[in-house]
Task: inverse folding
């Protein structure tokens, strides 16, 4: 009995199945009758649909997330190498530099051997040995080094200089500022 009011009782009845088996599934009816009438309620017990493939779904999403993290990490660590690999194998995104022979122009101060100091020797060694070794051999850039790549001619005119700047056109790497010195 839930409550009594003016001589009437409100009653609650429960059916509890402790160990539900497949044979217990089906339709259940409850009838209630008193002097006021009769009531009926129907309940159908069905097997709960299981969420299928939860382990497979979680494993697949986890693998995709792990792959995405690995790809982002690879990009962050090897961005320059990936860009050079792409440029060498699939072409360059550089449209303006189609006719260029060099990626960068290397300019350094050249001093007479009589005026060499330890600092100027280090600068020249850096310009002529270390930079080409790292940029050309390791990263694949093609450097224009005047002492190495400039072919001496009988006369050097302004027109000739403008023709040679075609070799240097294009987008230069942001590693070093580029400039051309006229002599």
Result:
């Amino acid at each position: 009995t839930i409550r009594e009011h003016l001589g009437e009782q409100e009653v609650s009845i429960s059916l509890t199945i402790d160990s539900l088996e497949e044979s217990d599934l089906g339709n259940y009816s409850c009838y209630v009758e008193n002097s006021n009438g009769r009531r009926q309620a129907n309940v159908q017990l069905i097997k709960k649909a299981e969420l299928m493939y939860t382990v497979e779904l979680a494993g697949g999403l986890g693998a995709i997330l792990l792959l995405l993290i690995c790809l982002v990490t690879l990009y962050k660590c090897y961005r320059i190498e990936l860009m050079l690999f792409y440029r060498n194998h699939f072409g360059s995104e550089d449209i303006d530099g189609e006719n260029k022979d060099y990626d960068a122009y290397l300019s350094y101060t050249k001093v007479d051997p009589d005026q060499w100091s330890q600092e100027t020797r280090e600068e020249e060694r850096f310009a002529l040995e270390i930079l080409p070794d790292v940029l050309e051999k390791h990263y694949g850039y093609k450097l224009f080094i005047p002492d190495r790549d400039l072919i001496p001619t009988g006369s050097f005119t302004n027109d000739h200089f403008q023709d040679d700047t075609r070799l240097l056109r294009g987008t230069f790497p942001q590693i070093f500022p580029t400039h051309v010195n006229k002599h």
In short: The radius of gyration is 42 Å. DSSP finds five helices and six strands in the chain. Residues 13 and 177 are 88 Å apart (CA to CA). Residues 158-183 have pLDDT under 50 and may be disordered.
